[in-house]
Amino acid sequence: MGKVCILTDAASQFTHPGFPGYQHVWIIPFDVSLRGLLYPEGEGIRWNYLPPSTLNGIKPCLKSPDAETLYTLFQKHAKECSHILAIFSSSELVPIYKAAEEAAQAAKNLVPITLIDSQTISVGTGLLVQMAAQEVANGQDPWSIEQKIRKTIPKLYTLICTAGLSYLHEAGFLEKPQAIAGEMLNMLPVLSFEEGKITPIEKAKNVRAALDFFQEFLEEFEDLKHIAVIQGVSPFNHETQVLRNYVHEMFPDVPFSEHSLNLPTAILFGPRTLGMVILEGE
Predict the structure, then answer these.
(1) Among 16, 111, 130, 157, which residue is least crowded by beta carbons within 10 Å?
(2) How many helices (H) and strands (E) in the chain?
(3) How much of the chain is helix, strand and coil, in % rounded to 5?
(4) Considering Cα of 218, then 134, then 126, then 88, what sign does the dihedral take?
């Protein structure tokens, strides 16, 4: 079997650097638009310097590569790979998957291309990419890898709690009056992903209530393979120690990782965001 290349987007986050098979992975960057200015690959922007709200007119926006750009990328990797496996963030969050479908159709005679919609983001997508990379390193064929990844997707659960409802509005997930009212009332909605779509599941009154909900959600599982916490700035940058201690006490044998928000996730949900990713066992 020839070389298998794994492509993913810059919203993916990995549980640790240098994971097995990392040399088979290539990351596709996003450009970022702020205040009408374009920042190629987000250079010059630090996620934790983003304002708490977008109501001041910053207009944050992720710019995914278009189909033509992705076709050129597929064409490049076709020269060195026998198969391209592309695992992208939820197509309901960013349009890169849909652009990749068009590009893959145009490149189908160059190299076999398998596209997978992770139906999640951040560490959720990263765990799938790491799993695929491990399988490539173990010499598994692309079909077997694809089947394993698709069977794992329903076992991934992602919770997002954000105080930046105006960011949800800019990303097209919330009406502006709702965003304005929510930020004025300091609402902390807890969101999950249902088949990749954002679904509100709880309205927390404060940070403590949000952390309690995260803990209660964890209690529903008996067999876990990984727990990850994704942390933004205030009001979540100190209180998450409570969640960390809870995980270590209740799930001492489950691998646990902590991550700062990355720029793409902060652009979508705002810098005042707390996330949790759970990978369920067999």
Answers:
(1) 16
(2) 9, 13
(3) 40, 25, 35
(4) negative
